[in-house]
Amino acid sequence: MSADVAPPAPRPKSTGLHKVDPSGEIRPGVAKVDPIVVVDGVTRVFGGLTAVDVEHLEIPRGAITALIGPNGAGKTTLFNLLTGFDKPNTGSWSFDGRNLAGIPAFKAARMGQVRTFQLTKSLGLLTVLENMKLGAPRQTGEHFWASILPFLWRGQEKQYEAKARELLARFKLDAKEKDFAASLSGGQRKLLEMARALMSDPTLVMLDEPMAGVNPALTQSLLDHILDLKDLGMTVLFVEHDMHMVRHIADWVVVMAEGKVVAEGPPDTVMRDPAVIDAYLGAHQDVDLGVVTGRYEGELPAEAQGLVETAQELDQAIEQDAEHMEESEDDK
What we know:
It is built from 12 helices and 10 strands. Helix content is 36%, strand content 19%. Helix 3 packs parallel to helix 6 (186-197). It starts with 34 loop residues before the first strand and ends with a helix. It has a 6-stranded mixed β-sheet, with helices on both faces. Strands 2-1-4-5 form a 4-stranded antiparallel β-sheet, with helices on one face.
């Protein structure tokens, strides 16, 4: 999150999401009290590269779960598998108690599981309102014979238009309803895609890097809308690289590295997990992390300078959370 953008107003975090292990540790694949998605033994191999190798994973219902990890960790590939946009080599998974293995994307969406994409998929030569109506399910006018008899679908069309305008107003895109989607900014397209996903009244909303390419001026609006999804009773699973955003809005965090789940838990716990530090910094195993963190003097190679920024961002995030907690206690 940009330093110029204030974090969203604190909202209650969901707790008690997992079943407590007698040891007190939260291991990868920990059972959830009420999981909406359960993944077992899912693998995806491209050539000789294993992109996803998830032994067991459960996503808690009614919470915001962040899926994080370095580039190439397999996050988007896992998204594609769970939503039917790709097929695994092995494994199975269920959504809301129903097996989705082998189910195509459009059927998964009809069941209440919808997703957005890192690169928005709005149709540029259709208006904003027309893009919204595409997200409505089971449209009578889509059938050939019914389409030539307007009295069969006109009433439904009006209902969907009213619903689309209501959502556009909520996402502050109502003034753009007659504009072509191609004329929208990157952030507005993200808002449009999120609003369109809600046309089907989903149970689970999966967002692939919702903040990628978004102007900082719209970042706060997007964050609030993601929090609103949870308040409306939906479950949210999102991929994100911005640690500040993850810490502020996620109730649960799942960390992937090299296709595997290496850690999961509440944000504050996960950010301090050695496995997470290794996932983000382990690509430079020959670099003295004491130098990166400033504990020791030394020189870093040019290609490792980015590690300093990563370490500083983690420190700043921890400090900001501590300050927010102090402010909240003072307000009480």
